[in-house]
Structure formats: C-alpha cells, structure tokens
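Sanity check

After download, print the first record. It should look like this:
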Amino acid sequence: MGKKWIMKYIKILLIIISLCTVSFILIFNYLFSDNRFNTSEIYYDTEEKVLSNSKSDGVIARDVYGMYEIENKIYYITSYGYGIYDEHTGENSIVKYTNESTIPADVKLNFNRGYLSIKQLDVSEQDTWSKILNNEIKSQHNFPDCYVVKYPFYLSGLQHKIIELNTGKSIGRYSEFSIQNNAFYFVDFGTIGKIDLDTNQVYKFYTSKLLISKFSKEPGSDGFKNYLLEILEKERLKDKELLDNHTLSILLVNNFSEFNGTDQSVFSTLIDKMVRERKALDIGKLNNVPIVDYLNE
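Expected structure tokens:
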C-alpha cells in the first residue's frame, strides 16, 4: 500500500514538473522569441528585415521599415510600397509608390493584389492607412520608434533610417535623433541631418570628423578608415543623385558653421550622447574641445 502511494506521489510530482517545464518554455518563448504577432507562424527577421509566414512559400515582405498589427491584419511599410497581409486568409496586397517601384521576386502576392494607389483599397483599409500616415496609430510596442514624424517623413526604428514615404527613399541613417524647434534632427557616425518640418527642407552635412574610428579606444587600421570614408562617400553620392533627379529636396551643407547656433547646440548634445553611450568609444578623444568647436575647425 505504501509503495502504491509513493508511486502515486511520484506520478503527481512528474506531472507538476512537466507542467512547470511547459509553462516555463511558453513564457520564455513569449518573452525572448522573435515572434511578435497574433499568428505564431508569422515572424520578422530582424537581421534580414524580412516578414515571413513559415507555412507558405516566398516571403510576405522585404526591406520592412515598420509594421502595425490591426484586427489580424499586418499593415507594413517597405522600400517599394505599402502592404497589407491578412493573417486569416494569407492574402497579401501592396500599393506601390510609383510605376517604377519593383516588388522583390520572392514576395508572394495572393490573388494578384497589386495597386498603384491607396484609394484602390477597401474603405476600411484606406481609413487605417490614413490613421497610420497621420500618426494616429503607433507601431506595436515590439517595434519602437516606427512612426510618421510628419508626412512624408517616416522614422524607422527597425532600420534606424528616415524614409520619404512618397518614394520609399532613405534620407539617411540615425544613431540619435531629436524633434524640437519644429525640426527633426538626427546624427550618425559621419553624417548630420536636419528636416525643417515647416518647409520639408532636408539638410545633410557629411564629415570625416564624426567617423566612428575617430572615437575608438583602440588604434584602427588605415584599411578600416578608408572603408568608412568610402561608405560615407557612397551616401553623399546617393543623396546628390536624389537631389539631381529632383526625387528629394536635400540641401547638401558644406560646413558645420552653416547651421545656426541653436541647431549646432542640438547636434552637439546628440553627438555627445551617440558617442558616450557606446562603451567601446571614447568621447575624451575630443581632448576637451567642445564638439561645436571641433566641427567648426
């Protein structure tokens, strides 16, 4: 009789352990997995910037800037257009920015849903996009800092880029940003940018003085420095091409001193934060010279 009770208690204990283990796995997966959606088969690859469904061929979207899950539909913004994916039916539709926009070959569009205007969508979908583009709907908490600053300027926390929503073109990358003085300020290693939210004018300044190698605690190789300079030059040429083609209104600033004192102060604070928050970097490399003076030398 005693052995039966012992076996019974062991079975109960094993069941409890199993339930605890399953609960722990579920909680762990919920907290730390890359799945962020109501439908478990849908996932977002943070490295590749790809939205996929594990049960279907192809992908839902590539080069994703932002996502909004509303009533089991995922509204997403990409470099080639606005998309809507129905989690129940698997229907995937895209509104391209222009006739020239190219949808990646492996993006699966069910029922041939491709459009040239948001006005061609259902009324409810039009209404949702209107709210998203007027910043009345924020991206879900798992995708922070994805929102329209002021149409057509979109802040993508997923890619750390600022996007122009009429074309899907990138205005620039950011490490730190601030919205004040009715302007959007952003800085990255090698670049400084400002968008005047009254006029929509974009200002960009490129400087090798802000390359990440300038603040490294370890001496960098000449090859690495040259690589960074090449990347910076490619971005400058890309912006010049957009300017020459009248795609974006970008004013290329030649000297930091061309920004007014208020702008310089904002940029100085952002640059200090950008460098100071990275443990591998050393703000002291400026040798106690104020950032404004350093950039104006």
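If your output differs, re-run the checksum step. Summary of this record's structure: The radius of gyration is 24 Å.
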